[in-house]
Amino acid sequence: MKLYSKRAHELHELLVSKQVSAVELVNDVAARLEDVEPKVLAFVSQRIEDAKAEAARVDDKIASGETIGPLEGIPMAIKDNMCTEGIPTTCSSKMLHNFVPPYSATVVRKLNEAGAIMLGKVNMDEFAMGSSCENSWQEGTRNPWRLERVPGGSSGGSAASVAAGQAIFSLGSDTGGSIRQPAAFCGVVGLKPTYGSVSRYGLIAFASSLDQIGPFSRDVRDCAQVMNVIAGHDPLDSTSAPIDRPDYTSFLNKSIKGWRIGVPKEYFGEGIDAEVEEVLRKAMKTLESLGAELVECSLPHTEYALPCYYIIAPAEASSNLARYDGVRYGFRTEDAEDLISMFSKTRSEGFGEEVKRRIMLGTYALSSGYYDAYYLKALKVRTLIKQDFDRAFEKFDVLLSPTTPTVAFTCGDRLENPLQMYQSDICTLSVNLAGIPAISINAGFADGLPIGLQFMGKPFEEGRLLQISHAFEEATGCHSQMAPLKGGCEG
Amino acid sequence: MRDFDFEIVMGLEVHAELHTKSKIFCGCTTEFGGEQNTHVCPVCLGLPGVLPVLNEKVADYAMKAGLALNCKIASFSKFDRKNYFYPDLPKAYQISQFDLPIASGGYIDIEIEGKKKRIGITRVHMEEDAGKLVHGGGSLAYAGYSLADYNRTGVPLIEIVSEPDIRSIEEAIAYLDLLKAILEYTEVSDCKMEQGSLRCDANVSLRPWGQKELGTKTELKNMNSFKALQKALEYEIERQAEVLREGGKIIQETRMWDENKGETISLRSKEEAHDYRYFPDPDLPPIIISEEWVERIRQTLPELPQARQIRLVESYGLPSYDASVITGSKAMADYFDQACSAYGIALPAGQSTDDKGKERAKQISNYMMGELSRRLNASDQGYQDSPITPENLVELLTLIEGGTISGKIAKTVFDEMFESGKKPKQIVEEKGLVQISDEGAIAAVVSEVVAKNPQVVADFKAGKDKAVGFFVGQVMKATRGKANPGLVNKLLMEELKKQ
Fold it and tell me: Would you call B499 exposed, middle or buried from its count of C-beta atoms within 10 A (0-12, 13-18, 19+)?
């Protein structure tokens, strides 16, 4: 039985009805993981033996007649920027290659308490900076749909592992599209929750005002199940919203008849591949057939999102990443003459090119004399972008757009051109600046490569995003294919 | 200060550690000392992924200090990151407050030569303390290695910045003295300079008398005591004056006071100054401070040093000098008030005691400002841990007042009290120090002494005053100091007249 190709809610039924044991399940997914890992390269570290021991405990629980939770015994993967007590957490960086946290992130603790079983930590762009998973200290992860393509980034390992059946679900983090873009490229469901919905405690910060953790899964129901576990107020995160988490599964199997869906024109047209637009137009027809009304609208400040983002995110990153100085943990240069050279050599040797580029950008933007012109201005633009959304949501239940302007690109294609790489996130950045939730689900394929559809919602209305995504998923069945692991990549 | 050829312009920046139980952004203890790196957790160590959560007590304390310094409390305040690299700063940024401090626009009134002078308080802001480095090989310059201790990292601080209103070293000392007293009175800080819980930096500049523009300033750091502040300011003022007299220019720079060398040393110039790249900390939401919150804190303000000084003068008739010394430290003032209670002369504010009470209060004050302070200073103790309790001091004064012991004997008893902590009555009884006031007994000693010394009697008759002193001494010697001196005098004169 190919257990690895099933969804968490299906596997839960099999566990509860004792058709499958948790050990069998972990064995099956671990075998798949091992089998395809040489092609996909999704994992940074694995913990298969520990996972099996945890599965045995779940089986004991089932055998003794105890009830188990929806994620109990379900194998999953965690992006390597979330702290896991006693397990290396590297951010795919040489800088943290030997860092073993003495504590776990809130989301990791919650999943652990819910009985989910972590098979390992998955690859990413270094410190979550990138859109292709190629900025990893390790070799870049590949797209399971076509192995010479990138899986997207920065949560490339999270997306690819789920698409390839190496994990049933995973967690990623999204600062400018790092969940949704790889979800789109790998044909899986990826949700970026509202800023403040999911605790950031233990998430190694890239840009604190934009970072948000969210799930990757193979269908919308699983996404809702994972959100039920990870969302909610955390007293350890002052930016975590003090609100009650709804039961996200309660939004499933509900009609979207009469919903008004805004289609911002700025997300279509120039820069969007024809094949992507074609699939999106088809998806819009499907939504209309489900009783929704689609209306073109405008988010006039969209064009400023990219420059605004590339001021704010690097500025915060320049400060967040300053602690990696070689003094207390992680990488330290071998040849330092004094304190200053220890700092600078550690940092120039420990960080990759993209990380250094963004630290430079951010340091510059915050420098005395430039602060007002760059950082302060960007904050004002951010407010305008947020107001665009506020205005749109006065009229619409959700907004719809492509998740990415193109399908997954070929490995190496954009590495030499950072600006072109930054363009990959053009459809996803605004959402982070506005702090609103957005989901990417598979809308179809072009030449065998998945195309993502993005729904954007009002703050704390993840439930409605799940509702419309589920309705769409039920109507199309797009999500039911496994990635074929075709092709190869010279790397 | 006209005798000096320049006008001195100074402002002080004072850092006070807040006396909260836990650190500013985590639950670790703020206790001083402890084995290295034991008062730490992932949050104050700034490990990857951690987030700060504000300890609200810190805002309470900062607000209390702000109110005591007559500041306006901001209704909207926020934290900013001050970015710089140093091994004692584990996040490579300090969470501080930049443009929206919790309190601003206050003042305190110091007293200089009996005249009141107002020193403006620009701002009071909250921030986290850094760790400590221990340099292998003694000083930093010769260190082969350095060790970092992060126990102090994240201990809450307030920084109190004064306006450049200070015009002399005396004013600087008086300002710091009063500021320290206010922080102690409000119990927001224990102000132990030797433990670093109160630290002072100074901005110093000179200008020709009559010039409006400020001269170029230097910032002095590392003054760890009042004495160090005084010496550093003396040195720096003279250094700047010499540069200016020779037609030179002051370089804007940060200078460090070197206690051993007794001089200030350039640390970094303006060109080398850090660009701290302040920006709002995205991990901490702004602090919204309601009127109710401010009022709640205002209710907790205690009687402040100056109000207390006025009360001591008005209620007990203390000379204002005594009152200012006593109220200069909260512990000393508390001691005085407790002693007054024990002596039965305590009064609510606004009432004043009778002459008898005033005399008693003055006696308490005399003992405190004299012998007791001297002994406490000599043994490096404060009033809060005085071996002589206020109640025991009053018991001693009562023994003197009632004539049980003489003032001279009281000194002996006092010393014994300080050494042993015993009650004065017990000491007097144990050592048999009760004053002899029995006229018959003294008269007998007097006649015996007089009879033994005919030559001195002759001297007395010849008008030599010294003779009386001799007889008194002899009587005291014979009674081992216990004879009531008044009676001795009276009986001696009677006896001598008979001769």
Answer: exposed
